[in-house]
Structures are given as structure tokens and as C-alpha cells.
Design a protein that fits this description.
Blueprint (H helix, E strand, L loop, with lengths): L10 E7 L3 E6 L6 E2 L13 E2 L9 H17 L6 E4 L11 H8 L5 E6 L7 H8 L3 E5 L5 H8 L7 H14 L3 E7 L8 H14 L3 E5 L15 H13 L4 E3 L4
Parallel strand pairs: 2-5, 3-4, 5-6, 6-7, 7-8, 8-9, 9-10
Antiparallel strand pairs: 1-2
Helix pairs in contact: 1-2, 2-3, 6-7
This protein binds iron/sulfur cluster.
Iron/sulfur cluster (SF4) binds next to loops.
């Protein structure tokens, strides 16, 4: 566990979120540890690419800090709709996630996990996520070439395994399932790619499928957001499949 355990701030916000209302963010991972190295990631190059889960912080300490913040916010009459695991990395790499969710249930506030979904094929990851009230899955591409270009996955990951696991999870998860698709100009926003991604997302029957583009400059200079027209086409493609679709950005 990191030396700065005692000093690390594990909560941030609450911040207004289009997906979640008023959301108190939970940072359950040291920064830049992820199973992906997406070309649009604002964090820059991942310090460490991992797919093996490990305990990053003490779940009790993390929960104490979150619950302490919740108490302070309640004293100030500030409303919180969700406690949201949304670290600067992949939250399911934390093997304490399930325990942390359990410890936070006493707050009575709904719990969300924003994940890239790449570890869902691991049974314990699915088990941990089943406890959440809302899970957001990143689905930027469903063909191997585009997936590798846009998400730059850990070399041990296979797309087929991830997609199968996402589908299985969608059939058992009782909470609110949403998806998020980030569109990058000339990379994953072509007609074929959008058709394939929307067809797959349709099979998951998400409550909402969000479309988005990078709103802050990605670390890589040659990466650009899809144009407004392309984003519009993507929206129409999704809607034509009967998917409840929304923009995460202000177009
Ligand atoms: S999944 Fe998220 S944190 Fe990981 S590289 Fe992609 S954008 Fe960055």
C-alpha cells in the first residue's frame, strides 16, 4: 500500500453530474493505474498497466473518510445522490471494492461505479459490481482493431472475453446499467464502427447509453473529438436501434 496512505484524499466533490445528479467522488485507486491506456485519456501515459486486482487502500479507512465527508455535507444540508467510485484509473483493479461498497451501504446513499468494464470476466469483479446501484461501462469499440487503437488495452486482455462478460453481467445486474461511448475523430466514429457498437449496446438493454467526446484536451496531441455532425449521426444510429441515448456533453 502507498506510503501516503494517511494523507491521500479519497473523496472529492460533491460535483454536479449529468449521469448521477450530485455525486461525491471516491478515489479508490492510486492515480494512473489502469488496464487501458486510452488515446483520449487526460491522465497521460498510465504509470502502470495492470489486470491483476490488489488491495490499494484499507477499505475501513476509505469508508471512514467517505462517511465523515457525508456527515459534514449533511450538516451543511448538501444533498448527495450518489457515492461514485471514479478514480484516476480503473476502480475494479481495487480488490477491496466489494468490501468498500458494503461499508458504505450504511450511508443509505446510492453507490455508482464508473468502470471501463475490461475486468468483468473476473468473477470477483462481477460479484463486487453486483452490489452497486449503478454501473457505467465504457464501450468505445467492439471490433478488435478499433478497440486496440482507441483503448490500447493491456496485452493480456481479449475483446471477445470482455464483450461476453459485459453481456452476462447485463443479464444478472439488478441495478441501473448505463454505457458510455467516447467518440474520437477518424478512429471509432465511422459508420461501420457505430453500427457495430450500437448493435452490441442494444443487446445489453442499458437504462441509458451516453455518447460523449473529450471535453478537455487529451494528453496526445493528434487525438481530436468527433465533429458535431458525426456525433449527431452516432446519436441517430443508436436511437434507430431503440436505445435510450443521451449526450454527456452539451451539444
Ligand atoms: S479507462 Fe479511463 S483511466 Fe483508463 S486509460 Fe481509459 S480513460 Fe484513462
Amino acid at each position: 500500500m502507498p506510503d501516503h496512505e494517511d494523507y491521500f484524499m479519497k473523496t472529492f466533490g460533491p460535483f454536479p453530474s449529468r449521469r448521477l445528479g450530485s455525486s461525491l467522488g471516491i478515489n479508490n485507486m492510486p492515480s494512473k493505474i489502469c488496464s487501458y491506456a486510452c488515446i483520449y485519456c487526460q491522465l497521460g501515459i498510465a504509470v502502470s498497466m495492470e489486470i491483476k486486482r490488489s488491495r490499494k487502500y484499507h477499505p475501513e479507512q476509505l469508508a471512514d473518510e467517505v462517511l465523515g465527508n457525508v456527515n459534514n455535507l449533511h450538516k451543511r444540508n448538501e444533498n448527495i445522490d450518489y457515492l461514485t467510485f471514479i478514480p484516476d484509473g480503473e476502480p475494479t483493479l481495487d480488490s477491496g471494492l466489494g468490501q468498500e461498497i458494503n461499508l458504505l451501504l450504511v450511508s443509505g446513499i446510492k453507490i455508482a461505479v464508473i468502470t471501463n468494464g475490461s475486468l468483468l470476466w473476473q468473477k470477483d469483479v462481477r460479484k463486487d459490481l453486483e452490489r452497486a446501484d449503478l454501473v457505467s461501462l465504457k464501450i468505445d469499440a467492439v471490433d478488435n482493431g478499433t478497440w486496440k487503437k482507441v483503448n490500447r488495452p493491456h496485452k493480456s486482455l481479449t475483446l471477445e472475453q470482455i464483450l461476453r462478460a459485459m453481456f452476462e453481467f447485463s443479464t444478472t445486474f439488478k441495478g441501473k446499467l448505463i454505457t458510455e461511448t467516447m467518440l474520437i475523430d477518424g478512429v471509432n466514429d465511422g459508420v461501420e464502427s457505430l453500427e457495430a457498437v450500437s448493435s452490441f449496446i442494444h443487446q445489453l438493454h442499458p437504462d441509458i447509453a451516453y455518447l460523449t467526446v473529450p471535453t478537455r484536451p487529451p494528453a496526445r496531441k493528434n487525438v481530436h473529438a468527433s465533429t458535431e455532425d458525426t456525433l449527431n449521426n452516432a446519436f441517430q444510429t443508436f436511437v434507430s436501434k431503440g436505445i435510450n441515448t443521451e449526450y454527456l456533453i452539451g451539444f
